[in-house]
Amino acid sequence: MNLNIERIPSWTAGLLLLAVNLLFPCLTWAWGCTGHEVIALVALDRMDAATRTRLDHALARIPKVYPGRYCTDIDLPAAAYFSTWADDYRTTHAETSDWHYWDVPLEATTATGQQYCEAGCVIRAISEQVAIMKDRNKPDEDRLHALMFVLHFVGDVHQPLHVEDNLDRGGNCVPVDFLGKHAEPRMHGNRATSNYSPNLHSLWDTDLVEYVGGVSPRNRERVQQFAERLNHQYAPEMAEWQRVADPVRWAMESHAAARDQAYKLLPQPIAPLHYSRAIQDCGENQTSSKYAALHEAANAPYVAAVRNEVEMRLAAAGSRLAILLERNWPEDWK
Predict the structure, then answer these.
(1) Which residues are bridge partners to 265 per DSSP?
(2) Which residues is 1 bridged to in the sheet?
(3) Which CA distances in Å does 88 have to 43, 65, 161?
(4) Whole-number pLDDT of residue 334
């Protein structure tokens, strides 16, 4: 049985996606297209053959063409293709937006799964979606949605800027030049907004991933080669990473990387601020303007300093996604 994963016309989805980009330009997709695809490819290589076959069979039940898709289809396996579905889904289902991140204050050194998650967060979303996926009493559509959420959220929780906030919307409000590309305000019509591109968050989502992986422009061969390199280069560490099965610990690894590398290694190191409440817009308290005055730049020394962390976060996510699916595959899904 094929399932209709989205019931809105393609033109409606396109307009909604445009509206989201205009109204919420600070929001970016964790790891971007390439990062999530690479994580899925790493997972496919690390999981056992039986789980991989069952995963392929489950995803074959879902229509590959759906309205509102953002990432270009570069003919990757279904797990990689659908690894970005959750980002497309939230453009029309805003109630799932909070599931993609966990705003642990950058100043915090520890956190429990009950903290900073009042409206929902990625660590709770992982456990909830795994439970739905395994529940044979749930409708098939809900269970397959849950599978696609899991493919995505394990990646999100390994993105350092998705597990912290420093009163800057997870780095979205920190303009950062990238290897000569100057951070500029995004425009809304003829008006400059308080949102800049590139920024620290988008840098870790996409720019660093594609530069470190040699994946620009994106195509199937480059993305697959990047995943293969990570599988080979980090094979010794993967068994150790897989021993950590707690999403909260995964998240705190990412949080430490945000504090000790993403922010601290900038030319003008940004220290953790005393946290009060999250801001709602990059213009609040003139946040982006204040950071723009620092003229932060992800220059060659910065890229060299963080490239291993970027690669390890992707490799760890893929290896852990593989073992999570192996251990939690629904007994009734053959």
Answers:
(1) none
(2) none
(3) 21, 12, 19
(4) 84
CA neighbours within 13 Å on the CB side: how many for 331?
A: 3
Which pLDDT value is given to residue 125?
A: 98
CA distances 213 to 74, 160, 199, 209, 239, Å, are 16, 18, 19, 6, 22
Query: Which run of H or of E encompasses 229?
Result: helix 220-233
Q: What does the pLDDT read at residue 105?
A: 98
Q: How many CA atoms lie within 13 A of 301 on its CB side?
A: 7
CA–CA distance, 254 with 162 (Å, rounded to integer)? 8
CA distances from residue 56 to 77, 168, 320 in whole angstroms, order as listed: 8, 39, 18
- pLDDT at position 3 is 52
b (16+ CB within 10 A) / e for 8-31: eeeeebeebbeebeeeebbbbbbb
Among 79, 38, 75, 36, CA closest to 59: 79
Low-confidence ranges of the chain (pLDDT < 50): 1-2, 5-27
- What pTM was computed for the model? 0.92
301 Cβ contact partners less than 8 Å away, ≥ 6 residues apart: none
CA-wise closest residue to 210 among 33, 25, 71: 33
Q: Is 211 left (phi over 0), alpha (psi -120 to 50) or beta?
A: alpha
For residue 324, the tally of other CB atoms under 10 A from its CB is: 20
Phi, psi at residue 63, to the nearest 5°? -60, 130
Token pair for 247: 């999403």
